[in-house]
Amino acid sequence: MTNQSLAGHITKFRVSQTPRIKRNRPAVSCSTCRARKQKCDRQQPCGPCQKRGVEDSCHLDSTPRPPPPSLANRGNTRVQNELRQMQSLLQSLLSQPNQDQAATSCDTLAAGVDRIRQAISGNTSSALTAPQVDQPPDIVFGSLAKATSEDVLAALPSRQCSDKIVSTYLNARHIAVPFIHIHQFRRRYEAFWNNPESANLLWASILFSVLAVGTIIPDDKEGRCQSSAFISMSARCLVSGQYSTATEFSVEALAMHLHARCFHQEDSNINLSQLHALAVRIAQQRGYHLAGDDFLQALTPFQVEMRRRVWYYLQYYDVLLSLEHGLPPVIHEDTYSIGHPTNVTDDEFDEESKIIFSSPTTEAYAALPCVYMSQLLPILRRIVCHALGFKTYNYKDALFLRSQLETWYRSIPRCLCVHSVKNTCLTNTASAALHRVLFQLIYNTGIALIYRPFLNIMSLENKNFKTALDLSRKNALRSIEVYIEVGQEMQSGGGLYHNPQVKANLPVNDFFITMIMAPLEFFGCPDLPQSQKGYIIHTLETAAQLWPTRSCVSSYALESSRLLQVILADIYSSTSIERPMYPLYSKPGKCPLAMLWNLWFKKWGWLGELVD
C-alpha cells in the first residue's frame, strides 16, 4: 500500500486544549537574567550582571501575589458581568432605527442598571471591612461570642473563691441537682484546674451553672449580679461546645443551665419551657429515656443511675413548667422506659461500682425525695392535663385520680411527712424540713387541681360542686397553716432563720400556694362553720401579715398576698367583723380580682363560661 493510500488513515488528531493559565509566581531572578534566560544568584547587583558590566540594569522586582477572591467577591463579579451585558444590549437596541417608542423605557432601564452596579460596588467595599462572625447565631441563645479556654479562665473567679462557691452549692442538697455526683464532679473539677486548656466546653458550662447557683444562695445583690455573668458564660460554653450535636455532657449541661436560669425568673431573654423542651429532645437522642437493657452498647451501673436522675429531673421541670405556663407536658408515659432513681447516696456508689443497692427508707437522705417525687410525677402529669383542660375527666374518673394520689401520699415514709414544721426543724436539717414542706404542698396542689374543673359558678347547687368547693377550702386552709409555720420559723429565733437554702427555694413553694388558693378567690368563703369561723379568719389574717414582706422578692408571694386580701374582703363584707388595715400590694388602676381572673382563667382557657 502506497503512502498516498495511507494518508487518509494516518491523519494526526489533536485534542484541543484549554488555554493554560499562567500562575503569577514571584520573580526569582533579575530582569536582565530573566530576559537572557540565565541563572541569577539574586544578589544586588547579581554576579552575571557584574561580569557583563550592566550593574545599573540589574533589578530584582518581586511580584506580589493577589489574595484569592472570596466566594462573595466571585458572586459580585459575576453579577457585574451580567449587568454589563444587559447595558450593552440596551445600548444596541437604542442604536437601532425605528425604536423611538421604546427609547424612553430603555433609557430608564439603563439608568436602573447603573444604579444596581453602583449599589453592588458599594456593598462589595463595605463587605471587605465588615467584621466576620466567629460562629452562627444559635436558635435558642442567639448570637454569642465564641468561648475559648482563655475566655473560660478569664471569667472564673480565683481558685479559692471558686472552691467556696462550689462547696456552698454542693452542701445545699435541697437546691443541688441530683444528677451531679459529688465525688465525680470534684475529680473533674480538680482535673480542670490542673489543665484548664484541655477542658470540655460543655463541662465548663456545667461548672459555670454551678457557680451561678452557688453565688445566688447567700441572697445578696452582688452575688446576683455575679450569678448573671456566670449564666451568660455558661450559655457561651454551651453554644461553643456544640450542645446541639448531642455529644457527651450535652444533656447535663442543658439541664444544669435550665436549673440555674430558674433562679433568674426576671430574665425573660430565654423561654424556660422552650429550653426545657430542647433538653428533653436531646436527652431522647442520647437515649436517656430508655432503660439500660434497651441499649446495644454496655452501660455501667453508675451511668444507668445517673441517666435515671437526669430523666427524673427533666420530668420534674416538665410538670412545673406545664403548670406555670398552661402548656401540655412534653414527656408522656408511653414514650420512656427508664425506671425511677435509686435510693442511694453519692457516698454509697461511684464510677467503679458493679452493683448499686438501695438504702432503707427510714432516713431522709438526699436521694429519697427524688425517688418518691419520681413516683408522683406520672400521677401529677395526668392531674395537670385534667385541670388545664387537655384531657378533662368526669367526676368518677377524677375520684380515681384522687385515689392514685392518696395511695402515693400514704406510701411516703414518715421521715418525709409534715406533722409540725417547728418539730421538723428541731430534729432534722433544713434540707429535710424543706423537702417535707414541698411534698405536702405538692400533694395539696394535686387535690386542688383535681377538683378545680368542677368549680363551675353556673352549678352552685350541684352536689359535686359543693363537695369540690368544700375540699378546696379545707385544702387551702391546711396549706396556709403549713406555710405560716414556715414563715414563723424564718423569723428571728426560728429553726430556718437566715438559712440561705430557704430563701432560694421559697419561690417554688410560693407558686404551689398560689395554685392552691386560686379557687377561693372566685367563690369566696360564705357560710363558714360557726365553730371554725374565728380560727379561719385568724389564720388568713396571720398569713396576710407575713406574706407581704416577701412580695418584693417573689412574684408568686405577691399574687398570694393579693389573693388573701380578696378572700378577706369577701369575708368581711359577709360578716360584721371589722376589717384590719393591711397594705394593699397592687398596682394603681388594677384590681387584684381582675388581674388574677385573667391569670388563672383567660390564660388557660378552661371554664371559659365564667369569663362571660
TrEMBL record:
In terms of Pfam families, this protein maps to: Fungal_trans, Zn_clus
One GO BP annotation is:
DNA-templated transcription
The record's Gene Ontology cellular component field reads:
nucleus
Q: Span of the secretion signal?
A: none
Region entry Disordered, spans: 42-75
Which molecular function terms from Gene Ontology are attached? DNA binding; DNA-binding transcription factor activity, RNA polymerase II-specific; zinc ion binding
The UniProt entry, under CDD domains, shows: fungal_TF_MHR, GAL4
What is the name listed in the Swiss-Prot or TrEMBL entry for this protein?
Related to transcription activator protein acu-15
Residue ranges crossing the lipid bilayer per the database entry: none
UniProt keyword terms in alphabetical order: Metal-binding, Nucleus
Compartments annotated for it: namely: Nucleus
- Ranges where the Zn(2)-C6 fungal-type domain occurs: 29-60
InterPro entries in the record:
Sec_Metabolite_Reg, XnlR_reg_dom, Zn2-C6_fun-type_DNA-bd_sf, Zn2Cys6_DnaBD
